[in-house]
Design brief:
Blueprint: H1 3-12, E1 19-21, E2 24-26, E3 33-37, E4 44-49, H2 53-68, H3 77-93, H4 95-106, H5 110-131, E5 138-139, E6 146-154, E7 157-161, H6 167-180, E8 184-188, H7 195-207, E9 214-216, H8 221-230, E10 236-240, H9 243-255, E11 260-264, E12 270-273, H10 280-292, E13 304-308, H11 309-322, H12 344-359, E14 363-366, E15 370-371, E16 379-380, E17 383-386, H13 393-396, E18 403-409, H14 412-420, E19 424-425, E20 427-431, H15 435-444, E21 449-452, E22 467-468, H16 481-484, E23 485-493
Parallel strand pairs: 7-8, 7-10, 8-9, 10-11, 12-13, 12-20, 13-18, 17-18, 20-21
Antiparallel strand pairs: 1-2, 3-4, 5-6, 6-23, 14-17, 15-16, 19-22
């Protein structure tokens, strides 16, 4: 579709910012709203319900009633599968609308909203729907006089709080396994990007998910999010976002009813390129593409690039030749590969880190400025620093923007030590032709995912999550069911 056609479709798009509780679109009890502004051009998209404790109470009560009367949990796994597969089909059928909502709401290029996020979201819902009637329970190896059954049961009412950088995809990572397992769900999307989550809930209803099973309460973290964290009738809370907020989520779980609390948090991922890298061009393309994808607004972005000193100059020459290809463009132009920063707060944060890099003595080789300032939107040039020291803020703190810090090394063990010298442990990368070196180094890197001779390859069948302050849970794969189910032992005395 041409850029003109996408803009025309965007102009015709209808927005509904009301919450979805007990199967109905409703205003906040207080009637309060907040403006949803597009980072693409600064225009107001719609007013969104500003849900607070009263709305959360209503949503949780709706979810609890749905769980207790077993309108969803009581369905056979095969029945839940059919409905979730229909839900996935509807996501695909509404692909253009959902992609537009995502692009206008948080600024990512339409080529990725439509080509990556929507297909990945539907695939996640479909995969968990297909999986749930293929997951078996167990019989323990007890004495013949006993029969011990180990079964999984839904945990109950699940609260999910998701971030603004991949609104639809991060929501699907919670929605899929939570609903497949038979839970009821209350979803709070980020106030910075709430629109696609609200539309997903409508499509779930259309697919046959009963009212009350999937509720959405848009609002702010210190209002709706806090109410969910402290709610005494929420059995499990799954959170993706910052480490600072994740800490608060865990504290609130302890202060309330000791609800299960699962967190997928920040990252400051290291990407290590050794001199024996089997394909330097591929390593450069991967490093540049991975840090500037989604405007750098990815928790697992390889923002620390360690390059062995003997190949660093060649690496940087190739990298600098590629950077112009990532200049921010109109997100509704399918040729654009980098879009807008989500909001003015994040824009200020990223520019502040760029200034800190300069002040600390790093060498700015590319970018560093606001871009497309006449558009009314929020854009930053792809930025690359060389001469970065591990003590600098840009090498220690999560920036969440299109900023790459390059560090050189001569000793791989020292590079690994520096890679691990961070409170985070979400992901890491390694480029080497030596299989033994790859295995030893992957074992030494303290990260939930270690990529070898690639970065960012992904599949729904593998778990995603981190070590240390990158969180305690895993999204994706069958392991995600561990978060949303209880293990029950039924001991039967036979004789």
């Amino acid at each position: 579709m041409s850029t003109t056609q996408w803009h025309a479709r965007a102009a015709e798009l209808a927005f509904d910012g009301r919450a979805l509780i007990d199967g109905e679109r409703v205003a906040a009890r207080s009637q309060a709203v907040f403006d949803c502004l597009s980072p693409v051009d600064g225009r107001k998209l719609t007013a969104v319900a500003r849900c607070d404790t009263l709305d959360v109470d209503a949503a949780v009560a709706s979810a609890r009633a749905a769980f207790e009367d077993r309108r969803w949990a009581g369905k056979a796994p095969g029945e839940r599968k059919k409905i979730l597969v229909r839900f996935a089909d509807l996501i695909l059928a509404n692909r253009d609308q959902l992609a537009l909502l995502e692009t206008l709401d948080m600024g990512k290029p339409i080529r990725y909203s439509r080509g990556v996020d929507v297909p990945a979201a539907q695939n996640c819902i479909r995969w968990y729907g297909e999986a749930i009637d293929k997951v078996y329970d167990q019989v323990a190896p007890t004495a013949q006089s006993s029969l011990a059954l180990i079964t999984r049961e839904p945990v109950g009412v699940v609260a999910a709080i998701v971030p603004w950088n991949y609104p639809m995809l991060m929501a699907s990572w919670k929605i899929g396994p939570a609903l497949a397992a038979g839970n009821s769900l209350v979803l709070k999307p980020s106030e910075k990007s709430p629109l696609s989550a609200l539309r997903l809930a409508e499509l779930a209803l259309e697919a046959g998910v009963p009212p009350g099973v999937f509720n959405v309460v848009p609002g702010f973290g210190d209002e709706a999010g806090r109410a969910l964290g402290l709610h005494m009738d929420v059995d499990c809370i799954a959170f993706t976002g910052s480490t600072r907020t994740g800490r608060q989520i865990l504290q609130m779980a302890g202060q309330s009813n000791l609800k299960r609390a699962w967190t997928e948090l920040g990252g400051k991922s290291a990407n290590i390129v050794c001199a024996d890298c089997p394909d330097l061009d591929a390593a450069v393309a991967s490093a540049i593409g991975s840090i500037y994808f989604n405007q750098g607004e990815s928790c697992n972005a390889p923002s620390r690039l360690f390059v062995e000193s003997t190949i660093k100059d060649a690496f940087l020459d190739k990298a600098l030749s590629m950077i112009p290809d990532f200049a921010p463009g109109d997100p509704l132009d399918e040729a654009s590969v980098m879009g807008a920063i989500v909001d003015p707060v994040q824009m200020k944060t990223v520019l502040g880190y760029i200034q800190a890099g300069k002040d600390d003595g790093a060498r700015l080789l590319a970018g560093g400025n606001a871009a497309r300032v006449d558009s009314g939107g929020l854009y930053i040039e792809p930025t690359l620093f060389d001469g970065v020291d591990a003590s600098m803020r840009i090498a220690r703190e999560e920036i969440f923007g299109p900023v790459l810090s390059v560090l050189s090394f001569t000793d791989l063990d020292e590079a690994v030590r520096q890679a691990n010298a961070t409170p985070y442990g979400l992901a890491a990368g390694l480029w080497t032709a030596d299989l033994g070196k790859a295995i030893r180094t992957a074992r030494a890197l303290r990260a939930g995912t270690v990529h070898v001779n690639q970065y960012d390859n992904d599949d729904i069948t593998v778990p995603f999550g981190g070590y240390k302050q990158s969180g305690n849970g895993r999204d994706k794969s069958l392991h995600a069911f561990d978060k949303y189910t209880e293990l029950k032992t039924t001991w039967i005395q036979v004789s």
